Fold:
Amino acid sequence: MATLLGGISPLIAVDRKAGAPLHKQIYDAYRARILDGNLRAGQQIPSTRELAAELGISRIPVLNAYSQLLAEGYFETRVGSGTFVSSSLPDRLTSLGEHGVSQPDAGVGPRPIAERAATLPHEVRQPWVYNRGAFNVSQPALEMFPVGVWSNLVTRYSRGLQVSALQYGGAMGLEELREAIAAYLRTSRGVRCEAGQIMIVSGSQQALDVSARVLLDPGAFVWTEEPGYWLVKHMLVAAGCRLVPVPVDKEGMNVVTGIKLCRKARAAYVAPSHQYPLGVTMSASRRFQLLDWAQKTGSWIIEDDYDSEYRYESMPISSLQGLDHQSRVIYVGTFSKALFPSIRLGYMVIPSDLVEPFTAVRHAMDICPPHLYQAVLADFIREGHFSRHIRRMRLLYAERRSALVDCIRKEFGSMLEIPGTEAGMHLAVLLPNGFRDVDLSTKAARQKLWLWPLSPCYLGENSRQGFILGFGNTPAEEMPTAVRRLRSLFPNTAS
Structure:
């Protein structure tokens, strides 16, 4: 069923000088738009009075056209609701193709697209991506979010809305929010920053995109973690970069190996506080090696601190940026994990001398971030709701993480290796030889278990087989059942 549009008028024009009468022109226009898929089954049509007023004609030809379309079954009326495209029409008449987009006719000539776009996967089809349920990655406990508090803040702000809030904002974002974030980062993450260095973005992905546009020319070499976050790789490829996969071990990215592979890489992307997907923390020695390399080669470091608020066996690890005295680190954070994914708000801390080029690029991309959620989030942070929510969720996720680890060890024994469990909202498990993670993840999806396979996170050929298991949205009491269902994927296998 198509989304109802409340009677929004389609693009219909009449010509008083044309040979065809007005009612026939209206009839033909509606019929053509239904058959070519621009009007869908169930979509509301403007009333005869509204359309007549919009076209500047008498209501009579509109009534005649609607009557004919109703008689032929293209329209239907619903008592008290209005007129709609008939819901009984075959789908093939009111759809635009397999993906809901029009398909060009054969023989229309070359249709070139940029090489960087052609190299990207056009659609994420894997069943474990973006489904909500046991083990899915990047899904917070949304049922625990203080919706009432948030709604009250939205209502309060909307009632006092100033006209100035309807105008374009600055490319860096709302000053009140940047001040609140700067205070939070200095206190909780050890980040060296002022509000003037903080840019509000739509999430960490946009932060990486802006950074690539400012810092990286097409063809630039970039160190990426191996294994690493798949969307980062896609973004860098789209920017025309040449990726250098640097292996990750229990101390994080192996900087010495990175130097051997490509000493003069333009940048390095790292998640030092909680590496994705293995979950390890970069050691202090590796952090200083990385900073030293960046300073000596004039390279940049993009630090992704996506979920480091959640650390369970020690205090949160201070940021890499806080150790950087040469302004080589661009620090990236997001509220998608700490609050809820659809908020689409993140931030980046930019070295002071780079603020102008970053601002220019951001302005060229989309001028400025939307105002409403920025203002509400600023109040949410300043009034203490954010810090209280983080404290509650840290306890909750610690419980869920412990339940998952205990259940895995109970059901699997030593069969599965867990490389990092100290932080975040997911953990990785490594499979023994002989198992294929993609095949098992596909099988698990039929049972509503959303196991993210580990092997696609590798760029090189020597990929490990395993799973990335999210525990954020699975209650501790449901974990034993979920892990037993996971165990059932491995029949006749000793622990």
In short: The longest helix spans residues 385-412. Confidence is low (pLDDT under 50) at residues 1-6, 94-100.
